[in-house]
Specification:
The chain is of the alpha/beta class. The protein has three domains: 9-230, 3-Layer(aba) Sandwich (Rossmann fold), CATH 3.40.50.620; 258-334, Orthogonal Bundle (Tyrosyl-Transfer RNA Synthetase), CATH 1.10.240.10; 342-426, Structural Genomics Hypothetical 15.5 Kd Protein In mrcA-pckA Intergenic Region, Chain A, CATH 3.10.290.10. Helices cover 41% and strands 13% of the residues. It is built from 18 helices and 13 strands. It has helices spanning 9-16, 26-35, 56-67, 98-113, 133-136, 141-147, 154-158, 161-167, 175-178, 180-195, 207-221, 258-266, 273-280, 285-292, 299-315, 317-331, 357-363, 370-378; strands at residues 22-23, 39-44, 71-76, 128-131, 197-203, 226-230, 342-345, 355-356, 382-384, 387-388, 395-396, 411-416, 420-426. The strands form three sheets. It has a six-stranded mixed beta sheet with strand order 1-6-5-2-3-4, with helices on both faces. A hairpin with a 2-residue loop joins strand 9 and strand 10. Helix 13 packs antiparallel against helix 14 (285-292).
């Protein structure tokens, strides 16, 4: 990104929050946004039935765009899902069945509704949920070749970094995947024609695809379109944002309990707090910087604010504050009153004399293998009902389950480290 300082409110705030990485013509886009509202889109591949934290920055860009009076389009790739985006992947994606794509599309649309304001009066900056299957599914191969093929240079497509990396690997790049960039370019032109979209946003790995769409619209329609990418977000320790030992951090409560979503943000590394506050909350930039500059024990206050604000955007203020109260109850030793994530086991799992403690960790998903569970216990990292597990073979039976003080099903409180707490219950 150049040293250019935008004047339009959206670009100015996006830059201040560290959300911008590359732009095709920042000065011209800035001028266009100063002239009035624009329509911009981000594409989402329906590879799962929920979006996750790895998608969060692109979603927050759409959210910020709408807050500044522009119109966001969230494009679900129902058509391109039949190919799969090869960008910076080691191997080809598995092709999905139509019913899987349909289910995933519904989940992605539900995810987006958690972040964007759909109560806006129609005709203003109300978000649009689009699906590229609506136009790609009607294309014939000959029509696509005649209309688009002449405007794509094979040598230029081969120069894209995402393509070069795949060609250097033994896996190679299939002709099917090679067409993905063409179809994404077609999407940009189609959204411009149908809805007046002039800006495509996306992760930095989408740069080549975005530029292809801009070039296609310029060559065929004489249109001036723009591309804007977000940076690859990694943690201070170098891990990719949203990746964890427990898997993807989903945004839908059906896939990940709100408490766990809150805990994910609460566990942010000290050095990342200020940056993540700016990227993933609506708090003023100055407040984010103040909180991020806190040190020692005080940084934990900022982490709790980050967790609550990020969770409120995704799940609502009430659910976020309930998750915070639950966490505070656990940390304060009042966990008996905290609504924790629940894992239900079959009675047979601990029948008779019970099950060794290390197996309980595996059964509840807190360890992937028995060896991992044993190491965790030996290191003092696991507790049952507040008491450390001293013996990895310590038997856990129904006698360890008791009703909470205020009533409810008998449960066992299992804690992993200082920040992971779950309620284990037995099926009736």
């Amino acid at each position: 990104m150049t040293d250019y300082r935008p004047q339009s409110p959206f670009l100015r705030e996006a830059q201040a929050r560290g959300m911008m990485f590359q732009c095709t013509d920042l000065a011209a886009l800035d001028q266009r946004m100063m002239e009035g509202p624009v329509t911009a889109y981000v594409g989402f591949d329906p590879t799962a039935d929920s979006l996750h934290v790895g998608n969060a920055l692109s979603i927050m860009m759409l959210r910020l765009l709408q807050r500044h009076g522009h119109r966001p389009i969230a494009l679900a790739g129902g058509g391109t899902a039949r190919i799969g985006d090869p960008s910076f992947r080691d191997e080809a994606r598995s092709l999905m069945k139509e019913e899987t794509i349909a289910r995933n599309l519904a989940g992605i649309q539900a995810s987006l509704r958690q972040f964007l304001n759909f109560e806006v009066e129609e005709g203003k900056n109300a978000p649009l949920l689009a699906n590229n299957a609506d136009w790609l599914g009607k294309l014939s191969w000959l029509d696509l070749l005649q209309d688009v093929g002449a405007h794509f240079s094979i040598s230029r497509m081969l120069s894209f970094e995402s393509v070069k990396q795949r060609l250097e690997r033994e896996q190679g790049l299939t002709f099917l995947e090679f067409n993905y960039s063409i179809l994404q370019a077609y999407d940009f032109r189609e959204l411009h024609r149908r809805h007046g979209a002039v800006l495509q946003m996306g992760g930095s790995d989408q740069w080549g695809n975005i530029v292809s769409g801009i070039e296609l619209a310029r060559r065929t329609d004489g249109a001036k379109l723009f591309g804007l990418t977000t940076p690859l977000v990694t943690t201070a320790s170098g891990a990719k944002m949203g990746k964890s030992a427990q898997g993807a951090r989903w945004v839908r409560a059906e896939k990940l309990p709100v408490f766990d979503y809150w805990q994910f943000w609460r566990n942010t590394e000290d050095a990342d707090v200020g940056r993540f506050l700016k990227m993933f909350t609506d708090l003023p930039v100055e407040e984010c910087e103040r909180l991020g500059a806190l040190e020692g024990v005080a940084i934990n206050e900022a982490k709790a604010i980050l967790a609550t604000e990020a969770t409120a955007i995704c799940h609502g203020r009430a659910a976020a504050e309930e998750a915070q109260r639950a966490a505070e109850g656990v940390f304060a030793g009042a966990g008996q009153e905290a609504p924790l994530p629940t894992v239900v086991l079959k009675n047979a799992a601990i029948a008779g004399e019970g099950v060794p403690a290390f197996k309980l960790l595996v059964e509840t998903g807190q360890a992937k293998t028995g060896g991992e569970a044993r190491r965790l216990i030996r290191g003092g990292g696991a507790r049952i009902n507040g008491a450390p597990i001293k013996d990895e073979n310590q038997p856990i039976s129904q006698a360890d389950f008791a009703p909470p003080p205020h009533g409810g099903k008998p449960e066992l409180r299992l804690s992993i480290g200082k920040k992971k707490h779950i309620s284990v219950q037995l099926a009736q």
